[in-house]
Amino acid sequence: MPRRRFVAMGVGASALLAAMPNALASDDLVERALSPRFVGSNDAPIRVAEYYSMTCGHCADFHNNTFPKVKAKLIDEGIVRFEMRPFPLDGLALRAHALVRAVPETKFFPLVKMLLARQPVWVRAADPVAELQKMAKLAGISADDFNDIMRNRPLLEGIVDLRQKGMDDWKIASTPSFVVNDDLLIPGNKDYDEFAEQLSAFGA
Question: Rounded to two decimals, what is the model's pTM?
């Protein structure tokens, strides 16, 4: 399955996936897991798509400090529809993206919020995957389900493909990066005032 390699901790995506075992996977599960994840009105005039990595400290900072204001002032007011698109920077991020994508959609944003809020705990752990499993347990995910997700090769490959699409369509090279109305790319972490200023050209 040809795809460009991405480098993260010296490991390319193709090599990373080749090292992962296969697991039986429902086509419906994978299709659901790879469907868009967004919050806000579908009729919002401004559509923001964030490319983020679960292990990115700048992404965590944006979601811990800026995103609550974005949600209260722009999303909840019907101005912005905010989508999150996976752009894993390393193998651990790929596993974390698989985890948050595999849970029911109603649990997606709460689980992302928890993992980014507690990012240093699991990312810097001696055994980060084991620590990630502990976080999953807090979200009601059993050990068996967690292991199935980690072995779900079609899901992992699908996330890598979504990452590649971001590179192909928008030349995404770092996280977080924000695409606004399929027209403007805003790279880098922003505080609320700077982020809102960037959106002002679109009516925010």
Answer: 0.87
Contact 58, 188 (CB under 8 A): yes
> pLDDT by residue (tens digit) across 81-121?
999 999 999 999 999 999 999 999 999 999 999 999 999 99
Q: Are 86 and 161 in contact (CB under 8 A)?
A: no
Distance (Å, rounded) from C-alpha 115 to C-alpha 78?
26
Q: How many helices and strands (H and E) does the chain possess? A: 11, 5
Tokens of 54: 């679960």
Cα 12 off chain centre by: 19
Spatial separation of the C-alpha atoms in residues 195 and 193, rounded to whole Å: 5
DSSP string, 44-110: -SEEEEEEE-TT-HHHHHIIIIIHHHHIIIIITTTSEEEEEEE--SSHHHHHHHHHHHHS-HHHHHH
Are the CB atoms for 28 and 188 separated by under 8 Å?
Answer: no
Query: Could you tell me which of 69, 59, 187, 54 has the C-alpha nearest to residue 131?
Result: 54
Domains (range + CATH), the chain: 13-202 (3.40.30.10)
